[in-house]
Amino acid sequence: MPFDPTYYNRPTLEVAQDLLGQYLVFDSPHGTLIGEINEVESYIGEDDPACHAARGKTPRTSIMYGHGGVAYIYFIYGMYYCLNVVTEVVDCPAAILIRSVIPIQGQEIMRTNRHAQKNMKDKQLSNGPGKLCQAFGLTKAQNGFNLITSKLRIEPSNKTIETFTITPRIGIKVGQEKLWRYHYN
DNA sequence: TGAATGATGCGCT
DNA sequence: GCGCATCATTCAT
Q: Is the CB of A130 under 7 A from strand C?
């Protein structure tokens, strides 16, 4: 069963930690895909210079100002998509970037989606924000999907991740003083 | 094995 | 027009 809606209304860093080890599930046209979330980054509020909401509410970022528990998927670098989980409550813009998942189910579909070579390890299929969206076949078509009731969901894995690494966020030029990247191998 | 680089399109100034 | 929450490939060590 997916999480209760209030799960995502909590403080973002709390949700981010809890998301580690849970399952990202997508009922794709080719079959169900499941990945274990093992890397996340938090982007919190207009005061976080690295957060897309730092420059205020725009058509693109308005989804972050809505209620938690929906997907925020954006296009970047001309060829990739990134998947985020919107957190907190209305008018409190925050989200968690899912940077990496470990393939659990549907690896063959992921390989096809990624045009992967045969010798590629399962983990390499989705160990990056652009790669996991390509592996899962996620595009802006899934932007705004409800992560509890739609085909794109996060479900409990019954795993508890007690040991993980905390570091600065990757690939940004501002806000590096915040240690909001959580991951494990 | 690590660093540099090109591909590529959209949102925002 | 510029910059970007990326990745695969190329090139140098």
A: yes
Give the pLDDT confidence score for residue A131 in this predicted structure: 98
Q: Going by C-beta distance under 8 Å and a sequence separation of 6 or more, which residues neighbour residue A171? A: none
Q: How many Cβ atoms from other residues are within 10 Å of residue A137's Cβ?
A: 19
pTM of the full structure: 0.96
The amino acid that residue A112 corresponds to is: T
Whether the CB-CB separation of A12 and A85 falls below 8 Å is answered with: no
* Residues A64, A95 contacting (CB under 8 angstroms): yes
Q: Could you read off the pLDDT of A80-99 as tens digits, one per residue?
A: 999 999 999 999 999 999 99
Cβ of A101 near strand C (distance < 7 A): no
Amino acid at A122: D
How deeply is A155 buried, as exposed, middle or buried, from its count of CB atoms within 10 A (0-12, 13-18, 19+)? middle
**What is the structure's pLDDT at A1?**
72
Q: Which residues contact A141 (CB under 8 A, 6 or more apart)?
A: none
Q: Which amino acid is at A181?
A: R
Q: Is the pLDDT of residue A160 over 90?
A: no
